[in-house]
Automatic annotation (TrEMBL):
SMART domains: HTH_XRE. Residues 277-309 are annotated as: Disordered. Pfam families: HTH_31, MLTR_LBD. SUPFAM superfamilies: lambda repressor-like DNA-binding domains. CDD domains: HTH_XRE. This is Transcriptional regulator. InterPro entries: Cro/C1-type_HTH (IPR001387), Lambda_DNA-bd_dom_sf (IPR010982), MLTR_LBD (IPR041413).
Length: 309
């Protein structure tokens, strides 16, 4: 957009600072002071002129060709996802994405689907990792942080996550990389998250400054469940067609502690709902407890917990 600073320059600067000369076959001089590669070294590796590369870093050239983008990706040793992100920045960002105001709206059919999953913890997040809707089992598995209004990035930078994550640094790096990969840099919600964490967390600015990008598709997360204790769950993400939302599901290997924990939480959830429904219906003749789970939707104003270091 005319008059708006291009995000391409900061990305190129951050990525060349991470590539060491030895990694690309260049000598390291004893008095070398620059972190990573020099501008002229990137230009030479990409086969473009130093003057043209300088214009790219300064945001004075907004339309590099596909060939130049591919050459820069090779020079900076970008993987496929990072190269795609570079191309997106060079092409101007997020054309065709839904408006920011619609990013909290979840299709009713998706909410109905989650409500039917009585033995699968599941929730939906948007591109800034706000939890928009969750089913009863997800709320039982992650009370407060797998429920509508929570934000997964804030949660990862909480003191509880730091204390209990098997590898907190790696988890935090992946979460921030996914935030940058999927969110629109002009989204006010992204700017709010980055601003809050940059001023309140000692590690976030360093991780954000790397400009890493990644799509999170699957993994393992640890949850504490009374009275069982700490349990590792598998999770898998699915893109929801027609939106930028992600469906996050949790699953357990047969015979694993996670399978036992899911069965326990499911029984506890159904019992709580039966008691609630029984109390609401009173002593009406022919009444019976309601056992159908429901999917809770995001509040009008999402909760945005402040991170603690």
């Amino acid at each position: 957009m005319q008059g708006r600073r291009s995000p391409l320059g900061p990305y190129l600067r951050a990525r060349r600072a991470l590539v060491q000369p030895e990694e690309v076959g260049l000598p390291r001089e004893p008095d070398r002071r620059v972190a990573g590669l020099r501008r002229e070294e990137v230009a030479r590796l990409a086969g473009i002129s130093p003057e043209y590369y300088l214009r790219l870093e300064q945001g004075r050239d907004h339309q590099p060709s596909d060939q130049v983008i591919a050459a820069l990706a090779r020079a900076l040793r970008l993987d496929g996802e990072s190269a795609a992100y570079l191309r997106k920045l060079a092409q101007g960002g997020a054309e065709g994405r839904e408006p920011f105001a619609d990013s909290f709206a979840v299709d009713a059919s998706v909410q109905a689907l989650l409500a039917q999953w009585a033995h699968t913890p599941a929730f939906v997040i948007n591109r800034t990792q706000d939890v928009l809707v969750s089913n009863a089992l997800a709320s039982a598995l992650g009370p407060g942080y797998m429920e509508p209004g929570a934000n997964l990035v804030f949660q990862i930078f909480s003191s509880e996550a730091r204390a209990n994550a098997a590898d907190w640094e790696q988890t935090a790096n992946k979460a921030v990389a996914a935030l940058r990969m999927h969110a629109d840099l002009n989204d006010p919600r992204l700017q709010e998250i980055v601003g809050a964490l940059s001023t309140s967390d000692p590690d976030f600015p360093r991780i954000w400054a790397r400009h890493d990008t990644a799509s999170l598709t699957s993994g393992v997360s640890r949850h504490h469940i009374e009275p069982i204790g700490w349990v590792d769950f598998n999770w898998q993400n699915f893109a929801i067609p027609g939106s930028t939302h992600i469906l996050v599901t949790y699953w357990a290997d047969p015979g694993s502690p996670a399978e036992t924990a899911v069965a326990y939480l499911a029984a506890r959830t159904l019992q709580a709902r039966a008691l609630t429904a029984g109390g609401a219906s009173g002593a009406s003749a022919g009444s019976r407890p309601e056992s159908m789970p429901t999917a809770e939707a995001v509040p009008t104003t999402p909760r945005r917990p402040a991170p603690t270091a």
